Amino acid sequence: MAEDRNVPAWVEEAWDKALEKTIRNTERIGSGFPHASVEGKYDLAEPNWWMAGFWPGMLWLLYAESCDERLKTVAEQCEERLDGVLDEYTRLDHDIGFMWTLTSLASWKLLGNEVSRKRALKAANFLAARFNLAGRYIRAWNPWSENDQNAGFAIIDCSMNTPLLYWASEASGDPRYRHIAEAHMDTVVQHFVRADGSVYHIVDFDPWTGERRGGIGGQGFAAESAWSRGTAWALYGLTLSYHHTGKQAYLDAAKRVAHFFIANLPEDSVPHWDFRLPPEIVKYRDSSAGAIAASGLLLLAEKVGPLEDHLYRGPAERILESLYRNYGAWDNAEEEGLVTHGTSHYPEGRNIDVPLIYGDYYFVEGLARLKGTRTIFWE
After folding, report:
1. Catalytic residue among 93, 157, 286, 360
2. What CATH architecture applies to the domain 9-29+121-371?
C-alpha cells in the first residue's frame, strides 16, 4: 500500500509501535469512541461527539498497510454505530466531515464498500444543508441550549470538513457540493486568516444579512490570540482545498499560515496551545496541534515547487520526530494514548496536558505520509 522510498528508521519504528499499541488498545476500547486520556485510559464519548471518526480513522490507516483484520472489524463496527447519529439528524453539526470522512469514506476508498459510499453521500448532504447563503459560511453548531444564539457562528475547524463536499461532487457529478465548499473556504481566506498568518477560531456573522460581527476566542486564549490547533486546522484545510480545486488563493493563504506556525514553534518543534499568551498563563503544549500541522505541511510540500518544498517538509519531519522521541508513550503500559501532552480546551479547563485521540490520529497520518501511503482519506 506504500510507495517505495527511503523512509527514516525512526518512522518505521514509530509506525510499528503505533500499530502494536493500537492493536492492544482495541481489546478494551473496541467500537467505542475515545476522546481524551484520563489517568491512562481513554474516556469513551457518545457517538454524536465531534471526534467520533478519529479512532476508526486511525484503525483504517493502520489496516491499509498491515491488513490486520482486527483493525478492520473494529473500524466497521464504529461506522455502523454512527448510523444512529446520521439517522437522528438533530445531533449533527459541521463536524459531519470529521466523522464520516474517516469512517464511511475511508471504507469506500479502501474496500469499495457501496453501503459506506451511500453513508458518505448522505452525510455530505447534511453538511451542505448547513450552508448559510447570506454569509457564505457553513454553520458550526446547533443551539447548545434553548436560548443559545449561535446561528451566525462559523469556526476554523470546518476547513477540515470541506473535503467531504469535494468528494461528494466528484462521486455524484453534482458541482453544488464543491460550490459550497469553495464559498466557505473563500470566507475563511477573507475573514479568518489575518495578515500575519494567525487565525481566528470563531467568526460571528449576522445569519440574516451575512455581515461579519467579529471574532471570538473560542478554545484560544482570547479573540485576538492565536490558538495553535486552529492555526493547524487552517494550514491543513486550506492546503486540502488547494489540492481539490487548484485555486491559488488557497495555496497563498496556506503558505502564510504555515510560515506563522513554523516561526512560532518552540525549540522542540511542538507548539504551545496558543501562540499569543500573557506571561502569567501556563504554556502547556498541544501535541495534537503539532501532529495536525505536520500532516498538512507534508501535503503542502507536495504542492509547491522544488525550490520551496523543504520549507515545509523539514519542519513537518522535525515535529513528527519530536512527537515520537519526546512525547510518545510507547513504553508506558499504563497509558493508552500514543502521544502525550495534548491540550483540548484550556479556557474551559478540560483535558489539559493529556493524550487526545485526534493527536494520535494525525500523528499516525503524518507517519503514513512519510511512508508514502497512497490513500489519505481527505484527498
Report:
1. 157
2. Alpha/alpha barrel (1.50)
Question: Looking at residues 20-26, what average pLDDT do you find?
Answer: 98
Contact 55, 34 (CB under 8 A): yes
Instruction: Work out whether the CA dihedral 202, 369, 119, 50 comes out positive or negative.
Output: negative
Place of cell 499568551: 277
| Predicted pLDDT at 148 | 85
Active site residue 157: yes
CA distance 166 to 161: 10
Give the 3-state secondary structure of residue 334: coil
The secondary structure of residue 199, as a DSSP letter, is B
CA distance 165 to 181: 6
* Active-site residue identified among 93, 95, 204, 274: 95
Eight-state DSSP code of residue 49: S
For the chain, give the mean pLDDT. Answer: 96
pLDDT value of residue 1:
41
4 carries an active-site annotation = no
Q: Which residues, 6+ apart, have CB-to-CB distance to 280 below 8 Å?
A: none
